[in-house]
Amino acid sequence: MSTASATSEPTAFDVLIIGAGISGINTAYRLQKAFPQYQYAILEARDSIGGTWDLFRYPGIRSDSDLYTFGFSWYPWNRSNPIGEGKDIRAYLQDAMTAHNIAPHVLLKHRVLSVEWDQQRWTANVQNEDFQYQFSSKFIIFGTGYYDYDKPLATTIPGIQNFKGDVIHPQFWPETFDYADKNIVVIGSGATAVTLVPKLAEKADRVTMLQRSPTYLASVTNLSSGGWLSRILPSSVNYYVNRFKRLVLGRLMFLFCRTYPNAARAFLEKRIVPQLPPGVPLSPHFKPRYKPWEQRLCACPNGDFFAALRSGKAQIETDYIETVESDGILLKSGKRLSADTIVTATGLKLQFAGGIPIIVNGEKLDISEKHIWNGIMLQDVPNAALLLGYTNAAWTLGADASMSSICRLLSLMETKGYSVACPSLRDPSKLELRPLLDLASNYITRAQGAAPKAASLRPWTGRTNYFSDLYFATFGNITEGLELTT
Ligand SMILES: Cc1cc2nc3c(=O)[nH]c(=O)nc-3n(C[C@H](O)[C@H](O)[C@H](O)COP(=O)(O)OP(=O)(O)OC[C@H]3O[C@@H](n4cnc5c(N)ncnc54)[C@H](O)[C@@H]3O)c2cc1C
Ligand SMILES: *[C@@H]1O[C@H](CO)[C@@H](O)[C@H](O)[C@H]1NC(C)=O
Ligand SMILES: *[C@@H]1O[C@H](CO)[C@@H](O)[C@H](O)[C@H]1NC(C)=O
Ligand SMILES: *[C@@H]1O[C@H](CO)[C@@H](O)[C@H](O)[C@H]1NC(C)=O
């Protein structure tokens, strides 16, 4: 390996964006619209854009969110189905980039190895195939998502080494894997398991979802409701009506669940019971131990999961694994599930800022020790933003609300002549800490220690909700907690 241009000047930009997923693409659009004079680049480690929607290739891969809110407000999702399949989301992202001339700014196969702040500028050390380059910028934006692309959540499945069949992790699904006539056990109960089971059941001989503890499932219709309003409105207006409706209903549903958990539980269960086949009781399989929306609510489009159960090709087991054997799984209850394929849908390993080492004035920073400023910037990290979305609404909404604040900050810096904006916290002891991501899911609670710190009051909060974050972006005190220098 050679290190190119170690002595030459780094390529200079106004802004560097790391990651060409949905957040990075949205950032590029917002940035070039607000600051057409800026030179910017998107550095993307992989050989294509799309992030999550390019990495995950398991059968049936789809969104949980509706694309009216998960897609870009500036590029309407115009398909009739609100829930998008992976390939359609990829195509949509590509089309959005092409339509707005973002593609020429993307540098694929450019992996950021570290970023360093020195003398009022960022330098990114970047690996492109066999070469290393340096790029510099005034401002840097991490659109790196929230999980580790290389390592899923580590879980110990007792006896898994004894298994003679295929063991597949959904994060690395072999695209050529033929699951026709297989006898598959999917371990897990999250969105991935709920997506995989009905899809696999179409061709497999038998699919069993094995869960330790149940999740709340909500059937959603995979067809945008074409009420009378949609027939009289032009399609572009319709899109915004749909988007607004889903924004508000999503928020109300979340608030309802959190405020009236018992009523919410009854509401959700009442919709599940009629979809269950005889012999599959609500309890224990669909009786979660937590309250609705303490973990992400799983969507099942057109009730596909329940249809798979009714077809007899899919089963559900709520039990613990005693040990995996060569051709099946022995459960704690004494029951045995035979299998020739095991899918470990056990979750994501959380990671912030892509795990990229951040060095400020010669010192490497531990982001878990830093407080987050309005869910956007990190304490003591100048001219840098970390795009985080919502866990209880579409991610993109949060990433976009962040960009509204960042654009306001950048234009303030322009007009007032500031070169540096850095969140600075003198007395953290007064803050009342809160988890950065407000969900009790296993993969989130296990990673809480690695996340930046969040508190209960602005400006040291994490993401709140779309309406509050938009209000902040428009009217909030954008300088509070920031140290601005010329
Ligand atoms: C299977 C699955 C389904 C999901 N469904 C939904 C859903 O329905 N609704 C929802 O709101 N959320 C969903 N999510 C969460 C989802 O990840 C986010 O909503 C969204 O796709 C994140 O977009 P992003 O651009 O922020 O991050 P990502 O999509 O993760 O993209 C990050 C990009 O940064 C790049 N990158 C990372 N490190 C570096 C580096 N060092 N150098 C250069 N580039 C780097 C990566 O290669 C990647 O392209 C889902 C997640 C998964 C895994
Ligand atoms: C929908 O958007 C795609 C681009 O993603 C475009 O090619 C197509 O013409 C649009 N269709 C309609 C019906 O507007
Ligand atoms: C949703 O609808 C679209 C379009 O009708 C279809 O292609 C897709 O398979 C459906 N997805 C699910 C999960 O039902
Ligand atoms: C914003 O906050 C700063 C610091 O707390 C304060 O000095 C300033 O007056 C506030 N601005 C407004 C408009 O409230």
TrEMBL record:
GO terms for molecular function: monooxygenase activity. It holds the Pfam family Pyr_redox_3. This is Uncharacterized protein. Keywords: Monooxygenase, Oxidoreductase. The keyword Oxidoreductase applies. InterPro entries: FAD-binding_MO, FAD/NAD-bd_sf. Its cofactor is FAD.
